[in-house]
Amino acid sequence: MPFIQTAPFLAFLSSCLPPLQCLIAPIAAGIAATLAAGFYINGKYQLSKDFEIVKGAAKARRRFEQSVRDQDCSLYNRFEDQAHSRPNAVALSFEGTSYTWRDLEMAKGVKAGDRVAMMLHNSPLFMITWLSLLKLAVVPAFINNQITGPVLLHSLKVADAKLLVFDYELAPAIQESLHAIKDLGYDLYTVTPKQQVLGQLYNQLSEDARQAIETPSFFGYVEWQHLSTEGFPRSIRKHIDMKDPAALIYTSGTTGFPKAAVMDHGRCTMATTSWGHLCQIKPEDKVYIALPLYHSAGSIIGVGQSFMTGSTIVLARKFSVTNFWKDCIAYDVSHFQYIGELCRYLLNAPESPLDKKHKVKLAFGNGMRPDVWSKFQERFNIPTVFEYYTMSEGTGALLNIARNKRDQGAVGFRGPIIRALQPGFRLVKVDFDTEELIRDKKTGFCIECEPNEIGELLTMADNKTHHTRYVGYFNQPKMSQAKLVQNVLAKEDVYMRTGDLLYKTADQYWYFADRAGDTYRWKGENVSTAEIADSMGRVEGVASCTVYGVSVPGQDGRAGMAALVLKDSIIQPPTGTGAIALVDEAALVDFVSRLSGYVGKSLPSYAVPRFIRICEQELETTGTFKNKKVELKKEGFDLQKIKERMYWWTPQGRYLPFGEAENQEILAGRARL
């Protein structure tokens, strides 16, 4: 701060002009006292840290308000500004090839419409397709490229689009549900160049897949080289409002039945501007993105910030421990984006001379766990970690710029300035069994948590300001409404339930504790327990099912575990004291085989429960018939506590019996989960 420089200046003046000593001494003493008080207050309340975050948010808000005044709200216009001001600068590097801002702008022409579904891998074609749709004022729906079958069909149904564009590598997954997709009214086009499809990919495919290529009714080609860049001036996007959707992005937490969060132009503008300022990204910087672009972290925050800063994006097709630091060094990367699991994978890799040869000065992302954080910054010499907590459908964000040990481990910091400007973050008490919010019997309002007490995070959703405006999910009004709760701390107030458990310290550092019972995180994805239980309950032989996450040594997040009660035709429960269950062994073997086939086909790999517990008693429920999971979670897959049969998901893609030998593989870190 400027006033800190005053003290050495006065000391210099005092030594040079002795006659003025009698006048300067009292002034210097007063300023010294002020400085001492300032340092104390700053040390206690972290005002400079608070101010740094507020400054970035203020710049984003000014940009937001200016765009509204100028009727210049489209996210595409931010990209177009860069393309016009620096057309020949490198905007994107991908697998050894560079693309200028002009290159990305040139490829246009996806058919205009209300919405277009995109099912693509990380590549320049993802960027080109996305930008083309934005230029046409069309809303892209980012489809998770890992999903298939019923989950894919549900996602497409929710998008309610008429066009699906896809990478040809994903053709088998699409063809599997082709008739149902066609019944939804979709036309299909691949963005993969025709020459590539008919060349190298064709030779790698099965005979059935080759036949699909030769079927004219299956799909068409988006042939970029024949499309014109003319006819789409900035004026065609003048009608776009900050509340209009810029993209539909499916939450990973609803793997069984994804929800499409509406990312409007306003939220995108605030996010892309804020992250650029907070990460201090400049046009000359290079930002490495290895996260999937179908999530808002990779696309809106990771890539989107470049629309504001003019930085170069170094895009990886997917995350690779082997290639991560090689890429950072080869492309002279200055920033990279992470999720917590990514950092743990890098830390678990053998030490290498490459660990510190890079020039990375800041990593930004979410989910960096406290047990990894310090080791990660020290081993890889990362000066600054910018950790944030937010969600696609959320109404706010927690931010923490970490440069020292005091900052490490927290998902956010909310000093007095931030709390005054954004008061709508509350931690309230919740019943961990029923997941109901606990209310004061006299007032009826929720009860806020004390420092270091775990509670559920609620964020204000009153729609009075842009950053508290709740949009919800596209085409799913009931699910949107289910996220809201009223009369939290005052009559008729409205907050959004995040479903996440956090705690905060007395000095306002906020820490992630766990996810509420209906959701857990695994392999970088959020998994809905209710929807997975519903899906598994469809398998013949299941009488009841509950799904929950369990901690696994050396792994981030929680692995899925399902407790199943089977029908009497497979296992008859004990009838009295000392009795044992009667098991039809052949029927049980058949059931486990059918269950393996079902989950392997119906669920994305990250959503498949890694452990199965075959219960010999009915599952305990609450008065409202919700399964109690607390004891199940505590027992996890501990063989000392569980005497019932257990199975685990093996690399062969099926459930096999789980015993002491398999348990030792996990504890030794050798098991592939």
Task: Describe what you observe in this structure.
A hairpin with a 4-residue loop joins strand 20 (494-504) and strand 21. Helix 12 (265-278) crosses helix 13 (296-303) and helix 16 (340-348) packs across helix 17 (370-380). Among the domains are: 2-45, no CATH class; 106-239, Response regulator (Rossmann fold), CATH 3.40.50; 416-515, Luciferase, domain 3; 519-667, GMP Synthetase, Chain A, domain 3 (2-Layer Sandwich). It has 673 residues and is α/β, with parallel strands linked by helices. The longest helix has 25 residues, at 21-45. 35% of the residues lie in helices and 21% in strands. The strands form six sheets. It has an eight-stranded mixed sheet. It has a seven-stranded mixed sheet with strand order 7-6-5-3-4-8-9. Strands 16, 17, 18, 19, 20 and 21 form a six-stranded antiparallel sheet that branches.
